[in-house]
Design brief:
Blueprint: E1 2-7, E2 17-21, E3 35-40, E4 45-55, E5 70-71, H1 80-93, H2 97-103, E6 114-121, H3 125-137, H4 141-152, E7 155-157, H5 158-163, H6 169-177, E8 181-188, H7 207-221, E9 227-232, H8 238-251, E10 255-259, H9 267-277, E11 281-283, H10 290-301, E12 307-310, E13 322-328, H11 345-356, E14 359-364, H12 369-376, E15 381-385, E16 396-401, H13 402-407, H14 416-427, E17 431-436, E18 445-447, E19 464-466, E20 470-472, E21 479-481, E22 494-496, H15 501-511, E23 517-520, H16 530-539, E24 545-548, E25 561-567, H17 580-593, E26 603-608, H18 614-620, H19 624-638, E27 645-653, H20 656-673, E28 680-685, E29 691-692, E30 695-704, H21 707-723, E31 731-736
Parallel strand pairs: 9-14, 9-15, 10-12, 10-13, 11-12, 13-14, 16-26, 17-24, 17-25, 23-24, 25-26
Antiparallel strand pairs: 1-2, 1-4, 3-4, 3-5, 6-7, 6-8, 18-22, 19-20, 20-21, 27-30, 27-31, 28-30, 29-30
Helix pairs in contact: 1-2, 1-11, 3-4, 7-8, 17-18, 18-19, 20-21
The protein binds adenosine-5'-diphosphate and zinc ion (2 copies).
Length: 742
Amino acid sequence: MFADIIIDIQHEKLDKIFQYRIPERLEQELRPGMEVLVPFGKGNHPRKGYVTGIGETCDYDLSKVKEIVDISRDSVEIEGRLIALAAWMKEYYGGTMIQALKTVLPVRQKENARVKKRLRLLLDKETGKRQLDYYLEKNQKARARLMAALLDDPILEYELVTKKLNVSASVIRALEEQNVLAVEEKQVYRNPVKQTEKQSRDITFTGEQKHVTDSFRQDYTQGIRRTYLLHGVTGSGKTEVYMEMIRTVVEQGKQAIVLIPEIALTYQTVMRFCRCFGDRVSIMNSRLSPGERYDQLMRAKAGEVDVMIGPRSALFTPFPDLGLIVIDEEHEPTYKSEQTPRYHARETAVKRAQMENASVVLGSATPSLEAMYRARNGEYVLFEMKKRSRMQSLAHVETVDMRQELMNGNRSILSARLQELMEERLERKEQIMLFLNRRGYSGFISCRECGHVVKCPHCDVSLSVHRGGKMVCHYCGYTQPRVTECPECGSRHIGEFRAGTQQIEDIVKMRFPQARVLRMDMDTTRQKDSYEKILSAFANEEADILVGTQMIVKGHDFPGVTLVGVLAADMSLYTDDYRSGERTFQLLAQAAGRAGRGERPGEVVIQTYSPDHPVIQAAADQDYARFYEEEIRYRELMGYPPVENLLAVLAAGEDEALLEKGCRYLKEYALRVRGRTQAAVIGPASPGIDRIKDVYRRVLYIKAPEYDTLVRIKDRMEQYIEINSGFNRIRIQFDFNPMNIS
Ligand code: ADP
Ligand code: ZN
Ligand code: ZN
């Protein structure tokens, strides 16, 4: 028998299958997915590798085929089905097979099992009773207590005996030696979820919720497997809908994976699922210890849980009979991996579901352009929920023109209107959230008087300021000198927009000395648990105002909040990225969704220098459909995803001249191999930061209507890089439909 093996070395040149002979003693045991030790290379150094297949034939000279040394006993095995998924990921996203295999294995190292000790009575009832009488006679109280308990229940937890019955370890040892009882060890899994009782829920679904859950159930019980996009406004009861869908799947003996962005994966969310599915729920997240993580994988494999909740990597939970994958907040950029293979959880979930006959549900109040585009094309089934589940109205949103504020002589970051509304809320003892939009900040230049933003004449993304007084397009490389006057209105009030949460906290405290203010950003959440602490303090109304970055707008439910202020809404509007409009709409809609979740209606103030920008207007009207129509037209016009596909080829190296030369060759090669396809090659450009720790970086973009065209070009480039020694000192990574083009 022979095994196909992928050697665990980070080297493109070794990214192929090697065959090894399976020694007879391992024939019964060896399975695809296991990690093994094999002799490798001229010196026959022992190397690790993964078995990807087993067969009876060998394609190589039999006299030269080496033999597997052993199975690595302390490594976790990859599920056979996940090997196929890894092969797809390698092909679809680039990189090596070993990188893909490691990605589908969320825990690699076996961890020691935690064991629980118990006592078992070895005597029959009669003998036991005689022994009890003997202990009582001798006044051996501890032994008598233990014997009496064992006669009631012949198996007792060790801990219970020492703690509750107050019997010492030496007494237990003595009885063990006399063969009165045995001490046994049983393996138990660590469980990071607090035990909760299942509770019956007494909610009546709204008409919209019922329509969605009924349609899903009908499809599912008829064996129809689809990808569904659930577009539901914030508070429309999407989570309740997911739970009902999971119930349908679990009733059929299948399991479900629920992906939630790590930042929204709070104790409250997990408890909602536990109240519904009891102890058949498990979680995966970065806060778990290695032992806990390993045990959750084992529990899932052993069929001890039905629902796995976690961030992106929980997608690879090895369930025996996967029935459903839910992706909540599917528009979140964290669903895209930043490491090779740079997979997107949405596409990978759809692929895994197809391989294992499961369905996928994507949920969001502001679906990604990708998901909505596919839903509109009929690739996904679209469900809409337009009403809030408890019939609260959506918040009232108004925009404030900050150019006007400047003209009125107000130079504060808080507009007069926002200050007025804050005053009102503080008097009424209602809560306020101030959200500073800082996502993707990259130093664009804008005019404080007319709102004009300096953009690339070729790409319609904003130019970024670089040191040395230049303005650069991070997409095509276009460069021009930094402007000191507004090209639109001639004003000298033009520059980078800078403000921090700390600064806003100070301004707020000065303006409203009576208010209790909390701040949440990277600085205040560095410590473990500080994130949850701030959130719960604010939820318990221990503060009046919460100031923060996008962290505070992610799906939290604060019924006391009736006012949300968005400061610098434009900050994310003009990042140098074609997704900036989409990001901004999502953030503003999410922020607006925070207001008025309780009994009282909410108000939202959006402060902007571009009140006429279609994205700002659509967000103010909370009109997703209008935003989508505008945005998809822009993507069509410019050929950006999801209408076309974009491949970023990231190149990095210590030698700048060599890197530039490599990129030029790569571009020429790409132009050559694109053949008659409609692929366009753009760049090389600087990816935002030119140099990190003395490593220079460049990026090349390839754009094509068909994804497969890009995959073929990627494959050819990988071969080209492999055979050209000029690329030995340049690292190349592929990023398909990247989240940040910088
Ligand atoms: P979403 O995920 O769409 O923001 P949730 O599922 O979190 O919405 O629902 C928001 C709140 O409304 C939760 O407290 C939830 O328990 C409650 N809720 C959802 N559906 C109903 C319903 N049909 N009746 C009453 N309350 C509901
Ligand atoms: Zn101007
Ligand atoms: Zn450009």
